[in-house]
Amino acid sequence: MKDRQNIHGSWASRWVFIMAATGSAVGLGNIWKFPYIAGQNGGGAFVLVYLLFILAVGVPIMMAEVLVGRRGRQSPINSMREVALEAGHSPNWSMVGWVGALAGFLIFSFYSVVAGWVLAYVAAMGNGEFLDIGSEQAGKAFSHLLADPQALLIWHSVFVVLVMVVLMGGVNKGLERATKIMMPALFVLLLLLLGYSMTSGSFGEGVEFLFHFDPSELSWDAVLVALGHSFFTLSLGMGSIMAYGSYMPKSASIGGTVLTIAALDTIVALVAGMAIFPIVFANSLDPGAGPGLMFITLPVAFGHMPGGQIFGFLFFVLVALAAWTSAISLMEPGVAWMVEKFGLKRGPVCIILGLLVWLLGIAALSSFNFGSDIALFGMNIFDFLDFVTANIFLPLGGLFVAVFTGWILHQRITRDELAVVTPAYYLAWSVTIRYIAPIAVTAIFIFNLIEKLG
Ligand code: PFF
Ligand code: NA
């Protein structure tokens, strides 16, 4: 089978692809969002459902996205069209890419706001503002930041500029090098934090919270959140992984690569949870505190740890870097598409898209101060953007990708891309992608609708 060339470039090796895709996957979703939604949904059963979705829905769909991207060798919008045409189907499958690019845009707007909080904490840690801080003061410091639109705007703007500058240079260069240094460093610091929380006295309580199993605590709502988060955390359902897959060498095997990425992402989320919850319990904080959880617990921990100022500083720097490599991947589908479509250079494309997400981000950050009265379906703008993207756009995008690769593409194409060596491997993938993933997503949507309407 002839391999098309990608005009945007390609990863030097399979390992670089793993690094880049892990850079996309590992981000605020793992360190900030996972602990707080696990906390809001009672931990335990929620966490197990989430792990199940990673394995039974996330992994096969990630394989599907990489497969389509690598086959199409273009932006997700054009790859979907190209591959649909190759299989003798409607070019309108590009719609999946469109909705994905839009979702990436919407996610970016609130992602950048949270990344801005992280940057603010980098500065505060560096200044030693959290030395010996109590949990109550830490809570106040966080509320204080949220109430200050000017501070939020500055940090949000800094983050947008950082992301756009890298995108301008092309994904290949700076990004590859940055992820290679950043991922191991992040792991080391996470382990260090884990070590601290293990000695904090409430480690058992934290682990028990995260892993106890009581299915009666589970609502359909929580199941939807778990499903949505499995897409969010693996960067699925919107084209990021498809775009990165389009730069992947043809010789690399998709199955093993994807399993590695999913495993790394899951480990980081679980370690973050095991680091954060013991601190929550040791300080009698509320595990259901919501988006502020990480920003209240970690300063307390670092404030009391020997060398906490420097570790805290480094830790928030690394969270910022993790957010940064993820945010780059959020915009890459849109950037690649505009370059292909209008023949523009990446520079002007990034300026246009950067301005747009910057504006939308201002709407998101206003949720905590001057725009706090604005309600969309009972949520503020920030929560609304988070809710619709993770719980509706991403699962729907994933559903379409599953149906497309499982039912629309010829097996000839999928077998070729997955480089099938053992029949069991292909069978496992095709059963999950054709039946398990689509049925799970559809059923969870339906049960949620029934629950809401009833
Ligand atoms: N996976 C990222 C995280 O867990 O922080 C967030 C993300 C990146 C979601 C890229 C979606 C995406 F396309
Ligand atoms: Na993630």
UniProtKB/TrEMBL annotation:
Its membrane topology: Multi-pass membrane protein
Alphabetical list of SUPFAM superfamilies matching this protein: SNF-like
Presence of the UniProt keyword Iron in the record: no
InterPro entries xref list: Na/ntran_symport, SNS_sf, YocR/YhdH-like
Origin: domain of life: Bacteria
Transmembrane segments: 12-32, 44-68, 98-124, 152-171, 183-203, 223-245, 257-281, 310-331, 351-372, 384-409, 429-450
Keyword tags: Membrane, Symport, Transmembrane, Transmembrane helix, Transport
Protein name: Transporter
